[in-house]
Amino acid sequence: MSEKATINPTPQASDGLDAIATQEAIEDQRRKTEQEQSGGALQRYINAPSAINFSLLLQCSWEAAAVTFQFSLTNGGPASIAYGSIFAGLGTTLVALSLAEMASMDPTVGAQYRWSAAFAPKWNRFFGLMQGWITVFAWICSCTSNPALISNIVVGLASFNNEAYVPLRWHSTLIMWSLTVFPFVGNFWLPRFINPLETVGAVCHVVFFFASIITLAVMADKSSVEYVFHTLTHDVSGWTNPAVAWGLGLLTVTYPLTGFDGVLHMSDEVQRARLRIPRSMILSVIINSTMQFLYMITVLFCIGDVTLVSASPLPIIQVYYQATGSRAATNLFVVMLLFIIFVSFFNVFASVSRLVWAFSRDDGLPFARVFASVHPRFKMPVNALCLIAVCLVLLALINIGSSTAFNAFISLPALALYISYFFPIFFLSWRRLAGRHSTPIPWGPFKLGKAGPYVNLGAMCYILFILIWMPFPAMLPVDGLTMNYAGPIVGAVVVGAALDWTLNGRKRFQVPVAGHEL
């Protein structure tokens, strides 16, 4: 590879992969000792294929885009989906490259909050604690989006197959509650079946993708090139400015590409994490963004009667039904989507529980010792798993009180995750360009080289652009039911984290220290 994106054979020089393996073995032993002293250690059982498959399924981009593209039908339309997919793919790749470089230096469960604490020019403990709260909150919200997507699919299929069915908001809440049981229980035996589970899920992720686009391409009536690439919808939602409508329509294509950092939070269970985690993150984003673009272009060309599709509770059902003319085939294709998102739910649940466990281990959360313990039999952070399950049960109640709850379940994790990506990239860029530090940056096996500052800058510009649109309400006029509560909720979390720092966090939180000084 060129200097712009080099894979160095060791974290510092070129002594070969054996040196990396030796260093990782030393760090593994150190981490194990530290963890046993603070509540227990996790097992390393995730191999190279499973690490890649874990990231692939965690994003499940084309499936998530399929069941959320109704947002773009009213804001931006086909032009927002088509060009937005390219824009989101390139922007997310820059973000993934930036985070992968840090993951290669310090592959750690805490990831963003640990890097922010390490690279911040001053007030390291403050930025570490704030970043930890934001990242934990973002991943809890991201975990909620999986059952929200699945419940939306179930309700959509029920309406499709039974015209007499009248969906009520509490139905979705009950579905989300029942779904939460599966990954909660499954995580107790995760080491035993995660490798075959990830393999099956990844195969389905790819096979169902080709089955879907081939079926639509062969059987559906085709839209014109003019409709797909030149139709900008800005007269349906109340937002009349074309630029605003296009920006709001990006939610459909940006949300599914978030979450690639989930494998980072499994670092203590990934073998040879310093090499495998950066690779899995980058490959996941490239593959998922490509699949999302191809799938959404296929859907746009095969969308059929746009009026019928837009009026459907779950538009993708009408797309398949108009293409195949068969209820059985439509149910099969939509259940495919449901299955892959369901498998992804196990990954997200596991990832966020490890993040809560790590943040608690560093005394980031109140009652930290409770959530930092690892069960001696299951080798799992059981208390952290319980906390996540409780949070999901409580957040599912949003469905009962708001008709736009599904919008919140999608925009909230996207907004919070992008914020969590921004600060470590910003601090690394600061350190990279300042050049005034007592120790050099301890680069890992994956290094961006001279391209690093430009990649970091591009990633930050992309994140800031996306963050502009995430808090906007999808419809005008705005009232209590159509309000987008993502911005105020994230703001409340930031204020709460600042209060925690002021009251107790500054005494409680410990700045994480890497195996070598950052």
UniProtKB/TrEMBL annotation:
The chain crosses the membrane at residues 126-150, 170-190, 202-220, 243-264, 285-312, 332-359, 380-400, 406-430, 451-472, 484-503. One of its GO terms (molecular function) is transmembrane transporter activity. It is found in: Membrane. Its main location: membrane. It is a multi-pass membrane protein. InterPro entries: AA/rel_permease1. The keyword Transmembrane helix applies. Keywords: Membrane, Transmembrane, Transmembrane helix, Transport. One of its GO terms (cellular component) is membrane. Signal peptide: none annotated. This is Amino acid transporter. It comes from Cucurbitaria berberidis CBS 394.84.
